């Protein structure tokens, strides 16, 4: 890690840790904020959180690996979540996964070579009446067809060119 990167991370850690009381009950909120700011939870950040919140490192790692919202490896700029719930399964979640693979060149758990997209499966997005569904960052796209999926991805690809 470069000195500039380490300094930037220290600044983010200081800012996030400063928002919360230094106690174990702050752990999940701190990890959420760090995930948002850093796009993943690097080991140096987890170690610092453990020390600052007076929590064993093993507990911090347990929480960071238990919840799917957290990642120990860098994610793409945009997180694409494909719903794998029952309604989406019945309505063709596998076809959506295949279309995403064709469009992005990645499968579940992978990040595109350009670092723009990460694909993850989730149990249910709670939008069963719109099945099949994906969520890109925090925006839900339902009733997906190949054309609708391409339009949804285009919105985020346009961000890359603007």
Question: Strands across the major sheet, in which order?
Answer: 2-1-3-4
Quaternary form: single chain
How many β-strands, per DSSP? 4
Radius of gyration: 18 Å
Structural class: alpha+beta
What is the level-2 CATH architecture name of the largest domain?
Answer: 3-Layer(aba) Sandwich
User: How many individual domains?
Assistant: 2
Instruction: Please trace the helix and strand order, writing H or E for each element.
Output: HHHHEHHEEEH
Helical segment count: 7
Keywords:
162 residues; alpha+beta; Arc Repressor Mutant, subunit A; Glutaredoxin; 2 domains; four-stranded mixed β-sheet; 7 helices; 4 strands; 11% strand
Structure overview:
This protein is an alpha+beta fold. The protein has 2 domains: 3-66, Orthogonal Bundle (Arc Repressor Mutant, subunit A), CATH 1.10.10; 78-161, Glutaredoxin, CATH 3.40.30.10. The protein has 7 helices and 4 strands. The chain has a 4-stranded mixed β-sheet, covered by helices on one side. Helix 1 (3-18) runs antiparallel to helix 2 (27-38), helix 2 runs antiparallel to helix 3 (43-53) and helix 3 (43-53) crosses helix 4. It is elongated and about 50 Å long.
Question: What order do the helices and strands come in, and which of them pair?
Answer:
Layout: H1 3-18, H2 27-38, H3 43-53, H4 57-66, E1 78-83, H5 86-90, H6 93-104, E2 117-122, E3 134-136, E4 139-141, H7 146-161
Parallel strand pairs: 1-2
Antiparallel strand pairs: 1-3, 3-4
Helix pairs in contact: 1-2, 1-3, 2-3, 3-4
